[in-house]
Amino acid sequence: MRWPPPSKPWPRLDPAAQAPPLVWLIDRRCEALVAQRPLLQALLSAEECSRIERLRRDDDRDRSLLGRGVLRLLLGSLIGQDPATLPLTVGPGGKPQLAAQVSPQFNISHSGALVLLAFHATCPVGVDVERQRADLDWNPIARRCFAPALCRQIEDLPPSEQGPAFLRHWCRLEATLKARGTGFLASQLPSPPAPALHDLQLPEGYAGAVALA
User: Fold this and answer.
1) 95 touches 179 (CB < 8 A)
2) What is the pTM of this model?
3) What kind and span of H or E run contains 118?
4) Phi, psi (5° rounding) for residue 22?
5) Contact, 165 vs 154, CB < 8 A?
6) How far apart are CA 211 and CA 124, in angstroms?
7) Lower CB count within 10 Å: N or C terminus of the chain?
8) Which domain holds residue 25?
9) 17: how many CB neighbours lie within 10 A of its CB?
10) How many domains does one find in the chain?
């Protein structure tokens, strides 16, 4: 689903454990977002505003503002609470969560012009989005973070397909780790993918994935 929504009613989460996650897409190039930024900023806590102001790049500040503001708005709608009063904290691995509340589960990611928010009623969820870059030197990253068989699989592709393939697998890995609330360990390769892992259909030039733990 895209933000801003064309009309209400707002979404509701399927409580079934096997239900797919709800994913919201925010495209910063959308002109309708211009009027929404002040409204979203008014929902943020003083600590959130301070953290955003410390970011050096305008793009980073804008992505964080949109992501946290829409996160509060959607969470408030999902649980029936004033978005500005939601007690958001940081959980294991730096993952945002609602203080003293098990559900709903959610995660956020942003890159380039896009911000993604993923929600699930009961299962921990992770989402990742990455902007494709022609100059990305992906091979050293793949050899450090992927299993050898996967590296060979990517290297066997035509050169024009290798970069996009690497990014797809990278998003799958990031989404899986974020769903589990863990990070990379320098001394070992990450665990196998999450049992529920989906590639996302995004605007041209981006790759993304969402995972349930």
Assistant:
1) no
2) 0.88
3) strand 114-120
4) -95, 125
5) yes
6) 8
7) N
8) 1-213
9) 11
10) 1
Whole-number Å distance between alpha carbons of 126 and 175: 5
Angstrom distance (rounded) from CA 48 to CA 64: 9
What token pair was written down for 149?
């068989």
Please, what's the b/e burial string for 40-56 (b: 16 or more CB within 10 A of its CB; e: otherwise)?
A: beebbeeebeeebeeee
Structural tokens at position 135 = 């100059």
Q: How far apart are CA 4 and CA 26, in angstroms?
A: 7
Q: What is the DSSP letter of 209?
A: E
Q: What is the DSSP string of 176-203?
A: HHHHHT----TTSPPPPPPSEEEE---S
pLDDT along the chain (213 residues), means of 10: 61 79 92 88 92 92 93 89 88 75 86 95 93 92 93 95 96 92 56 75 96 90
What pLDDT score does 188 carry?
A: 47
